[in-house]
Amino acid sequence: MTPPVDGPTLHLVGPVVLAAALAGVGVYGLLARRNAVLVLIGAELLLNAAGVLLVAGSALPSGGLAALKSTSQSNPVETADPLLAGQSLTIFVITIAAAEIGVALAVVLLLFRARRTSDLTAVRELGEASPTYTETPEKVSP
Amino acid sequence: MSGLEVVFGAFAVLAVASGLLAVTSPRVVHCALWLVVSLGSVAGVYLVLGAEIVALVQLLVYVGAVVVLVLFALMLTRAPIAASRDLDAGPGQRAAAAVAAVAVAGVVGGTLMVVVGDTVIGVDTGRGDPRSVGAALFGGWLLPFELLSVLLLAALVAAIAISRPDDPPTPEDAP
Is A10 exposed, middle or buried (0-12, 13-18, 19+ CB in 10 A)? Predict the structure, then answer.
């Protein structure tokens, strides 16, 4: 397939393989870790896999792969996506990830204050039913 | 194989290898620091793909803010600094997690490989410069952008509300 623009080109297989590998690593981190903070590291890697795919997709003309096949001969400037959907959405994903990890780490800190542990396998019950629940969680000294 | 592809491959291998170390290292601080390397390499991949603003945002937000948050959380939860076996689940769950990871990578990579085939994309660095990204963000994406700022405010308020210790009122507080 001919590239849509002159200049440097890149096979789309590379970003796809990278995104798949990062997604796999992220899923392993989510499932194999017991420390709550380290589980969140896996989630961050998963979100980055999505970002790589979005940025790679933003190099496609407006309309995606189908447009690439039909408009490869025409002027690439006319077919370029004016909204830059891939890059804009990647910035949105990064922002949402920042908001997500802020709230998630606050929850982890609350869990540690209440149960004195951040081990996810030790926290099997929520609320008062848990054997590690204390009515007045002692404060964490800085 | 062009020079761009060589640079891309180097960044990609670095990102995946350091990502693997970040999810397998027995030392919590090493995990956070390998995450820095992995996310920084992804920023390099963005640069190679011609998205310079996204690469800078990635460096600022992820490497600058998110990793610092993770390190703070590790400190505040008194995570063990030395190598610890308590960070990982048992060998059975780890094997199941590895199978699930390979399955996810295989399904995602296989499906996308069938779709994209041997597509070659042109890397146009002019489309990732601040002017065009800013015009897109504050043009067609203005409403989602504003919604996102509301989301960030909500997350900020929620994080403070969750982590604030709710002290019972002491007699001194009463008027």
Answer: buried
- Chain A residues within an 8 Å CB radius of B122: 3-9, 59, 76
Pair of tokens at residue A97: 């990830």
Judge: A3–B62 Cβ closer than 8 Å, yes or no: no
CB proximity list for A71: less than 8 A, separation 6 or greater: A4, A61, A63, A79
The residue of chain B nearest to residue A46, with distances taken between CA atoms, is: B19
Cβ-based neighbour number of residue B110 at 10 Å? 12
Contact B165 A113 (CB under 8 A): yes
The shortest CB-CB distance from A105 to any of B45, B69, B110 is to B69
- pLDDT-based confidence at residue B58 (cuts at 50, 70, 90): very high
State the Cα–Cα distance between residues B39 and A131, nearest whole angstrom: 39
Bridge partners (DSSP) of residue B121 are: A10
ipTM for the predicted complex:
0.88
Residue B58 CA to residue A1 CA, distance in Å, equals 31
Return the closest-CA partner of residue A27 out of A11, A18, A39: A39
Q: What would the mean pLDDT of B54-70 be, rounded to a whole number?
A: 91
The answer to whether the CB of A30 falls within 8 A of the CB of A60 is no
CA distance A53 to A60: 11
Which residue in A1, A84, A103 is closest to B159 by CB distance? Answer: A103
pLDDT in tens, B94-134: 999 999 999 999 999 999 999 887 778 878 777 788 888 89
Optimal mutation site among B1, B49, B78, interface A, most CBs of chain A within 10 A: B49
Mutate to test the interface with B, among A91, A110, A120 (most CBs of B within 10 A): A91
CATH architecture for segment(s) A13-66+82-124: Orthogonal Bundle (1.10)
